[in-house]
From TrEMBL:
A Pfam family assignment: adh_short
Organism annotation: Mycolicibacterium duvalii
Similarity annotation: Belongs to the short-chain dehydrogenases/reductases (SDR) family.
Protein known as: Dehydrogenase
PROSITE patterns named among the record's database cross-references: ADH_SHORT (PS00061)
InterPro entries reported in the protein's UniProt record: NAD(P)-bd_dom_sf (IPR036291), Sc_DH/Rdtase_CS (IPR020904), SDR_fam (IPR002347)
Annotated keywords: Oxidoreductase
One GO MF term attached to the UniProt entry: oxidoreductase activity
């Protein structure tokens, strides 16, 4: 996909990877709607000051009404949506959590993607083109120590992106799945400061697995993948070997992860 002249929506665009994606897409000629509960208008203003086209919308990407608001804004300001970047995400509570905790994390990390696809896919099918970007996590291919909700919801997001790609690829709809390891974002900064043993293990696991990279690097690699029509986007190339190791001997991988968790708990 040539991003120049496209209309894109980026959820969770008020900071971190979302803000970097908004800037990167705009730099490549996309007209961007930045959606978030906090900071969307500031990010859009920064994009405009940099010479790009963007507008910010205060919207909850997990709610149908919020997604509809972003789509309406995109259509009125720039035209039909070509690219939807489902980036908004939450870490959730450490450990197993309660039912209410699971509802929140599944709404943001999974159902938000499903709800957006329901609204956009029929129009994309009719036009014969469209692109869905799912910003998941390495946790969706491996796991996330210390946080069941995050690990499970990101696995589900991976599965949904795969299903979209298989089901609608022949209709001209592209899908990219973005799975970074550690990225220097407010989300990572927040879990570093949580006074909970599971949270500390989770933060340590993220930072020890590979070098922590910038959100701008994730955005660059993601935009390259969209332009190339590539499904799996690994901002940390070393993740591919980790994923292959997991698949080659699942029992050995689980045993190794248990040892890794014991080590991190002892160090913490």
């Amino acid at each position: 996909m040539d991003l120049n002249g496209t209309t894109a929506i980026v959820t969770g665009g008020g900071s971190g990877i979302g803000a970097a994606l908004a800037a990167e897409l705009a730099a490549r000629g996309a007209r961007v709607v930045v959606g978030d509960l906090i900071g969307a208008s500031d990010v859009a203003a920064d994009v405009v000051r940099g010479g790009g086209q963007a507008v910010g919308v205060r919207a909850d990407a997990a709610e149908v009404a919020g997604i509809e608001d972003m789509i309406r804004t995109a259509e009125s300001e720039f035209g039909p949506v070509d690219v939807y970047v489902a980036n908004a995400g939450v870490m959730g509570v450490p450990g197993l959590g309660a039912d209410a905790d699971w509802d929140v994390i599944l709404d943001v990390n999974l159902r938000a993607h499903i709800r957006a696809a329901r609204l956009l896919v029929p129009g994309w099918q009719a036009r014969g083109s469209g692109y869905f970007v799912s910003v998941a996590s390495a946790a969706g291919l491996l796991t996330q120590l210390g946080a069941a909700g995050y690990a499970v919801s990101k696995h589900a997001a991976v599965g949904f992106a795969e299903w979209l790609a298989v089901t609608y690829g022949d209709d001209g709809i592209g899908v990219s799945l973005v799975c970074p390891l550690g990225v220097e974002t407010p989300l990572l900064q927040a879990i570093r400061g949580v006074d909970d043993p599971d949270a500390r293990v989770g933060a340590s696991a993220i930072e020890a697995s590979a070098p922590v990279i910038s959100a701008a690097e994730v955005a660059r690699v993601t935009a390259d993948a969209v332009q190339a029509g590539r499904f799996l986007v690994l901002p940390h190339p070393e993740l591919l070997d980790m994923y292959r190791h997991k698949g080659s001997d699942y029992d050995r991988w689980i045993s190794g992860m248990r040892r890794y968790q014991r080590m991190l708990r002892a160090d913490g």
